[in-house]
Amino acid sequence: MNFFLYSLFLILIFFVLPGFRVVNQYERAIVLTFGKYSDTREPGLNWIIPLVQQFIKIDIRITAVDIPQQEAITKDNVPVGINAVVYFHVLRAEDAYLKVQNYTYAVSQYAQAALRDVIGGVELDSLLTERDTIANEIKQIVDKATEGWGINVEAIKIQDIEIPADMKRAMAKQAESERERRAVIIRAEGELSAAENLKKAMDKFATSGAISLRTLQTIEATTANPANTIIFALPIEIIEGFKKLAGK
């Protein structure tokens, strides 16, 4: 009896207890029996056969992987340096572990290649103004390739775009010229509007006779100070009329 209890205790200590495994909520675990895939375990307390089964945990949370700066040439032959971030998570733990050796490294490398390919097919202006569209195009390419690995790419974000210094200076001059052009147009439109309003005012004064009243008001305002000297300029027609009256 004592031998039986002792044997049972040894089995419990060396065989049963070591087989218990805990899977966290953010994990999934795959079980290999003699090296062959058996099943995928959900979060909670699990038990495997020690020395027979292998227990591998896979983190299924979203992972962010930096894509180091890549040198690429745009469609219009401008060299650029660009880096990005890939956000992905594991959908099927068994595929992520069994179909690719290192899924994180594989996703990063594939994203680098896709980034260079897509950048090579767009012009610099599109790259600078349509960053989100280009990033979404890269995401679709990477997501399609990694779907078979049990990976889902959530997003790809382009961070920095470096362009040559001479190109920066040329773009700055272009932007400055554009601002000057807009300023000239705005000033011209303002002067045109002012001229049209003045013309309307003059036509109104001429038809209503108010221009004479405005002239008298101006004279009255200028003669308020006796020290002021006022010179009236008569139209040439009046002067010619005086000459005719004088017989000249």
Structural overview:
This protein is an alpha+beta fold and 248 residues long. The chain folds into three domains: 2-59, no CATH class; 63-163, Tetrahydropterin Synthase, Chain A, CATH 3.30.479.30; 165-221, no CATH class. Helix content is 51%, strand content 25%. The chain contains eight helices and eight strands, in the order αβββββββααααβααα. The strands form three sheets. The protein has a three-stranded antiparallel β-sheet.
How is the secondary structure organized here?
Elements: H1 2-16, E1 20-23, E2 27-33, E3 36-41, E4 44-47, E5 53-59, E6 63-73, E7 79-90, H2 93-98, H3 103-119, H4 124-129, H5 131-146, E8 151-162, H6 165-208, H7 210-222, H8 236-245
Antiparallel strand pairs: 1-4, 2-3, 2-5, 6-7, 7-8
Helix pairs in contact: 3-5
The CATH architecture of the largest domain can be given as 2-Layer Sandwich
Count of DSSP-assigned helices: 8
Q: For the CA atoms, what is the radius of gyration?
A: 42 Å
CATH topology of the largest domain: Tetrahydropterin Synthase, Chain A
Number of domains: 3
Unreliable spans: none
- The termini sit apart by 158 Å
Which sequence of SSEs, written as H and E, runs from N to C? HEEEEEEEHHHHEHHH
Query: Beta-sheet strand percentage?
Result: 25-35%
Strand order of the largest sheet: 3-2-5
Largest sheet report: 3 strands, antiparallel
Question: Which structural category do the helix and sheet elements fall into?
Answer: alpha+beta
- CATH class of the largest domain, anyone? Alpha Beta
How many DSSP-defined strands? 8
- The shape is elongated
Taking all residues together, what is the mean pLDDT? 80
